[in-house]
Input
Amino acid sequence: MGKLVMLPVEEVDISSVKYRPEVIKAPHLTGFTLRFFVWLLENPILGPPILSFLKKMNKIPEMMQHTIIPENPMFRPEFPPQEPEPGTVLVQEDNSAISRVESALACLPPYKPSIHWDSDPSHSFFYWTIRDYAHAYQSGRTTPSVVAEHVISVVEDSNNKKPPMTFLISFSADEIRKQAAASTRRFEEGNPLSILDGIFIAIKDDIDLYPHPTRGGTTWYDKVRPVLEDAVCVSRLRSCGVIFVGKANMHELGLGTTGNNPNYGTTRNPHAVDRYTGGSSSGPAAIVAAGVCSAAIGTDGGGSIRIPSSLCGVVGFKTTYGRTWMKGALCDCGTVEVVGPIASSVEDVMLVYAAMLGSSSADRISLNPAPPRLPCLASSENLKILSSLRLGKYTEWFNNVYSTEISSKCEDILHKVTGTYGSQVIEIALPELQEMQNAHILSIGSESLAALNPEIKNGRLAELTHDTRTNLAIFRSFSAAEYVTAQCIRRRIMYYHMEAFKKVDVIVTPTTGCQIGSSYFSFIIFFLFLDNSMTAPVIPPSALNIGESNLEVSGYLMRFILAGNLLGLPAINVPVGYDKNGLPIGLQLIGRPWGEATILRLASAVEELSAELRNRPSTFYDILKDV
Output
């Protein structure tokens, strides 16, 4: 194969770029065929040629081995200086978490309890918000201890369902009661710590929550990595009086987008229990969507907050890389992953985000983050700022989804935004999206393997699920040279996005673009493994005990979210409607580096315009209904 030479990125004519749909070609395997495929991949003789074939089908060698890229590598996101966002409140990250939450609370419009407490059941469905819980506690309507008993009962009930919902994989009723009793005493004494006091939050199983073990969805990780203290983000939330319900289920080690986990049971989607939640933050998104918790904390290295939030119909927020401190998370040394909140509303996301934000001392030196800001949604300037926003849309990419229902719902809400606020939609182009996809796979795969290598060498590989082992076999086939090439591509992709942000303030896309189709490769797999099914987000019965590998669907679920991870950009999912099966559809807003306030402001406006479109999930626990 001859070599390919890329133009220097500054010489690329972005306006003439033709969209090339990103493609992943891989077998869809469950049950025995998955187990057999893993045996082949891990065989020292048969594995290398199979992996080589897989990579050639996806043109990875062509891109990573036979292409000359003139740019230097970018081994972690490097951001150009950014102007302060208008109409915002500066949040001092060195202040206490309580102080930051108070700043966020002051940014919200006045609380109207009648919206929820006195609403007509025939009207639109609403989730209980953090301020609803605080109002209930402060008014004496109920106490955290009473609510705790509801939550404990609900968790136990959800585990006894057929099928079980499997929201949590580490849960202690006594621990919840202990936290709730302390919160109740503070309210009785008139000294709640913050608006988050007595608020129930779940923590993804790859984030430390003492005294719970951190397994990362595996059966053994806690044996090699004991938990001695809270993760930094958890400690900050605990200082605000948060009540932690336990460790939420997840796709094993975060290496998957469906949420499938044979180790503890696969979390079910509250909107349809035969469907996946999306992953890897499956438990956090589902437990919020089902009404059990006001919020949850997840991690996002490849859409792992935004994908399940979209599929479960809740809000999922990924911050700029380095905005939150990763200490105490399994992924604390990576360059694509952040920790962030999932909640049922944008205002709840803002409150939780305010408590947990704050860069590490090392990131403050290397990344030089702009000071964190929050949008003043209560300000008279809010409408004026919304009217000035320029929304970037790459139409061909935007419309490349499995069902036109997805793009149509997202298009409809953009029309509402422009019609209501006067915001402007501007056409943009983003070159080399296939290259971005491969660079992300190389990056997250290499970083995951580096973190796991010591345990794999000590014989732990066989204790992982077959899905995880499939991914690790692919990751092991990457070379150091390919990894460096991926980082050169990262620099090019950063340039293209920064050029787009010279014209627009926010990039808008559907959050997920799940697509199902057949391919020549699937035809081959049919003859090799007698399994030619291409999955939708329905949970195949054969995947429950052994697992499932469907990298094609993973690629389509991740289509729109990779810039947030590879480039470290902030992004948020906002629910905007449902498909014909009643399954949620999400709109994604991608912001400039350190531009959390802008996308939170726009997300709040989108949420308000979509409020009447929200439906009650088929599995929903109305925690405050009877108190």
Q: What stands out?
A: The chain has a mean pLDDT of 93. The first strand starts at residue 4 and ends at 5. The two ends are 70 Å apart (CA to CA). DSSP finds 25 helices and 17 strands in the chain.
